Amino acid sequence: MKKPNCSFMLVLGSICSLAFTFNCAKAQDIDYPKLAARIIKTSASVKPGDVVVIAGGKHDFSLMEALAIAAKKQGGMVTMFMDSDAVERATFKDVPEQYLDLQPTFFADWMKHINVFIGLPNVEDSKAVYADIPPERLARANKAGQVISDALNSSGLRF
């Protein structure tokens, strides 16, 4: 079994701290720039020239924006990926079945150039998004996405 690296454990700690913060304070009470600076500097340890990807849902845009700004202030080259409940639901409910098998190999290849990946929840209401999606459709899409999981597991990315 692969031993988790220290960077991963620090990011995991920050995410747990973040979850606790969200439960104890209203979104408007959270100092996103301060939280983002701590995550970027301490947990993710972004250095000048690092390629940083920040992914999440539109409901987390304020935090994603603060993370991107903090990463750029450390010299990171930032790309943001935005998702939404509507897009996720359509992906599993409305996309023709044969397209669920398409593997995102382009992204697995691109990941070789990423140093830091910060992934926030991509949907706000997972029960509503996935409630009546047939398990077979979810399984097909997950099988196609395994190429990403494999790339992540074999990478040196800081999460």
> How large is the radius of gyration?
17 Å
Task: State the distance separating the first and last CA atoms.
Answer: 18 Å
Sum up the overall morphology in one term.
flat
Instruction: Calculate the mean pLDDT score and round it.
Output: 86
Reported for the largest beta sheet, the result is: 3 strands, parallel
- Number of strand elements: 3
Fraction of residues in helix = 40-55%
- Structural class determined from secondary elements: mainly alpha
List the total number of helices: 7
**N-to-C SSE series?**
HHEHEHHEHH
- Sheet-strand content, in percent, reads 5-15%
Low-pLDDT regions = 1-24
How are the strands ordered across the major sheet? 2-1-3
Topology:
Elements: H1 6-24, H2 32-43, E1 51-57, H3 61-73, E2 77-83, H4 85-93, H5 105-110, E3 116-119, H6 126-130, H7 135-153
Parallel strand pairs: 1-2, 1-3
Helix pairs in contact: 1-2, 2-3
Structure, explained:
By secondary structure, the chain is mostly helical. It has helices spanning 6-24, 32-43, 61-73, 85-93, 105-110, 126-130, 135-153, and strands at 51-57, 77-83, 116-119. The chain has a three-stranded parallel beta sheet with strand order 2-1-3. Helix 1 (6-24) runs antiparallel to helix 2 and helix 2 (32-43) crosses helix 3.
